Amino acid sequence: PMHPAKKTWDCAKPPRDDHSAPSWLTASEFQDVPSVAAAKVKILASLLRLSTRTVIYTGAGISAAVVGQAARSGQNTVGWKTNPRAAKPTFTHYALGLLGQEGYLHSWVQQ
User: Fold this and answer.
1) 1 lies in some domain
2) Among 53, 39, 37, residue whose Cα is nearest residue 104
3) Dihedrals φ, ψ of 41, to 5°?
4) Among 30, 31, 65, 79, which has the highest number of CB atoms less than 10 A from its own CB?
5) Closest C-alpha to 29, from 69, 58, 1, 67
6) Could you give the number of structural domains in the chain?
7) Range of the structural domain that residue 43 is part of
């Protein structure tokens, strides 16, 4: 059975100030329970194996763990600001790099 995601950061504001959004769409962050995340990973893996032209589109969010910043928290206190050369790749960077090396990603668009 699917379980609802757990809210890990609550925010009533929209994701961005420079774009309109419906009132239900906020910058709150959620995390799936492990069983749901595992099911989603299996589905994604199947889709990647079937795809012959996979393009990923990512933004600054894949580096959020490095800079210590949630979507709109305004926090940016660790990582590259204090010492740019000390910043390390996130799990997402490594995972996407490995998928590319293994031939599962064909293009990567970064905003």
Assistant:
1) no
2) 53
3) -65, -40
4) 79
5) 69
6) 1
7) 6-110
Alpha helices (H) along 1-111: 34-50, 64-67, 91-101
Report the distance separating Cα 89 and Cα 98, nearest Å: 13
Length of the chain in terms of residues written: 111
Q: Which tokens is 13 given?
A: 């504001």
Residue at 100 is within a domain: yes
Tens of pLDDT along the chain (111 residues) come to 678 999 998 999 998 888 889 999 998 889 999 999 999 999 999 999 999 999 999 987 787 766 555 555 555 555 556 677 777 888 999 999 999 999 999 999 988
Stated pTM of the model? 0.68
